[in-house]
Amino acid sequence: MKKYLTIIVISVAAIVLAACGTTSSDLTMHPGIKAYSPSMSSVPGIELTAVFTRDVKNKNPQYHWVAEQGTFLMWNEANNWQVKDLGQDVLTNVHKVHWSVGLERTIPAKAFQILLSVENTDTGEILASATLQIEQPRTGYFIID
């Protein structure tokens, strides 16, 4: 009896997990640097690259970047290396952005999250999601473990 019950529980768990969609292992954020301070840096922020490994043919994916604190910036050769403030909540087809403190230059939180999801542009369906924690061990100094 226990054997059958175990098989049923495992089967139900497999069905539930399959119904939940993409696991977070399909989407990760890779920081370009692990520590950042606006006062001592030659870059405008922490480069974040979304790595999405799932095949999404005909899904028309977009990246939805959300920062609990700070802002996202665009800084690349395509913009002639001009810094463009994108805001705290960005829906874009760009898989690489920079996170920065923003104009306020101070953040009261000691730790906060960067949230990223890949969404189907046509339906709004979330295909995958990931989070990254940024810590501020001292004012104006940010690290990613």
CATH topology: Immunoglobulin-like
Give the strand line-up of the largest sheet: 2-11-10-9-4-7
Q: Beta-strand percentage?
A: 35-45%
Q: Which CATH top level class fits?
A: Mainly Beta
Helical proportion, percent range: 10-25%
Tally of DSSP helical segments: 1
Question: How many domains comprise the coordinates?
Answer: 1
Quantity of strands, as a count: 11
Give the CA-based shape: globular
Low-confidence stretches: 2-23
| Whole-angstrom Rg | 19 Å
Distance between the termini: 46 Å
Q: Quaternary state, please?
A: single chain
Q: List the secondary-structure elements in sequence, H or E.
A: HEEEEEEEEEEE
CATH architecture label name: Sandwich
Structural class: mainly beta
The residue-averaged pLDDT reads 82
Furnish the topology, listing elements before pairings.
Layout: H1 2-19, E1 27-31, E2 35-36, E3 46-52, E4 61-67, E5 71-74, E6 84-87, E7 89-92, E8 96-100, E9 111-120, E10 126-138, E11 141-143
Antiparallel strand pairs: 1-3, 2-11, 3-8, 4-7, 4-9, 5-6, 5-8, 9-10, 10-11
Task: Please characterize this protein's 3D structure.
The chain is mostly beta strands. It has one domain (22-143): Sandwich (Immunoglobulin-like). Helix content is 12%, strand content 44%. It is built from 1 helix and 11 strands; from the N terminus they run αβββββββββββ. It has a 6-stranded antiparallel β-sheet with strand order 2-11-10-9-4-7, with no helix packed on it. It has a 5-stranded antiparallel β-sheet with strand order 1-3-8-5-6, with no helix packed on it. A hairpin with a 5-residue loop joins strand 9 and strand 10 (126-138). The protein starts with a helix and ends with a strand. The model is unreliable at 2-23 (pLDDT under 50).
